[in-house]
Amino acid sequence: MEHHPLEGSKMVKDVSLQQLKDMLAEFARVRGWEQYHSPRNLLLALVGEVGELSEIFQWKGEVERGLPNWSPDDKEHLEEELSDVLLYLVQLADVCGLDLGQAALTKILKNARKYPINPT
Ligand SMILES: [Mg+2]
């Protein structure tokens, strides 16, 4: 099998949203897929992936943090579906012309003001 240039990406530390955004834009561009990546289409794809993510947990009952009883295959499946959700979310923000990283930081700060820490 041909060695793909992204093959070593497990070594990349501190992956940024910017990096993902750029890689996804290039991925779509070279395949001529930009025409399909309207905000609405990306939103529907995102919702579909959230469904796939939900399926992993469906009927399992409550699951312990760290997933101690899950097989490596199940964990890999979860990684893939979480990634699908993230990647569509990043693309959706991109085609809407929004800076998702900045928006998320702003939202955390807003939440912190809305929910102050109770002095004990
Ligand atoms: Mg998926």
UniProtKB/TrEMBL annotation:
Q: What are the record keywords, sorted? A: Cytoplasm, Hydrolase, Magnesium, Metal-binding
* Reaction equations catalysed: dCTP + H2O = dCMP + diphosphate + H(+)
Q: Where in the cell is it found?
A: Cytoplasm, Cytosol
Q: Does this entry carry the keyword Cell membrane?
A: no
What cofactors are annotated for this protein?
A: Mg(2+)
Give the multimer and partner information.
Answer: Homotetramer.
Protein name, please? dCTP pyrophosphatase 1
User: What is the source species?
Assistant: Rehmannia glutinosa (Chinese foxglove)
